[in-house]
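SECTION: protein entry
WANTED: fold as tokens:
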Amino acid sequence: MQRLHLDMLKPGMVLGQNLFDQSGRLIDGNGMKLSEEYIQVLQSYGMKEILVHNSNMLDIPVQCLYSPLIEATLSIELRELFTEMRGGAEISEKMLEKVFDPIYQMAGELFPELIGEPNLNLKLKAEEYQFVYPVKVAGIRMLLGKRAGYGIYDLPILGIAALLMNLGYINLSGNEINMIDPFCEPQSVNIKNHPLETWKILLNYKCIHPDTLNAVKHHHKRYDGNGYPDKLSGILTLYHPRYWL
């Protein structure tokens, strides 16, 4: 297979893997022949690169670090969890653990050796941010954890914390959600309180590891003490990562 930027695609090329949109829905499957019109459709999804079949490069392995299907499933599960909580439903341990299953699968794909690279080719739309961004962060945090020497049973602690870090957003109004910008310091007090709100939501669940709780609560901590909500400072461990925006 060959990885190509969308600008390099030509009609007649063949997809090398399944494609999913930002909501985790299957767009089209491996083996589909591209048309000029379809290439334009792919650009509208915000994609940058895709894998295509190339008979001259069969000996060159090209693949994503995590299965796109697993990432898509995780995004869908996270969306359903948010929907249930916003609807006032009481979330059971079983419902929460269901969201964890894809995280365990992603952690398993990092062993015994790292093969492939994370797929970060997404231009996130505002309405998809809450359900796609945490999935990507979870993958990166577990990759860094693997590089740092953490084992297969430790990595899901990081991944679950990253996945659920913004659960406190369910208490925000629609206008406040539209104000969220991962690249800027939030001005709203309610937005700044989301780590603490997430921690409160997860505190009484037996399936949540204590280190996951700590990571969730302090994922906006800064070395210089300018983070929030507790303005803690100093050296940070992997379970209390410096930048989890």
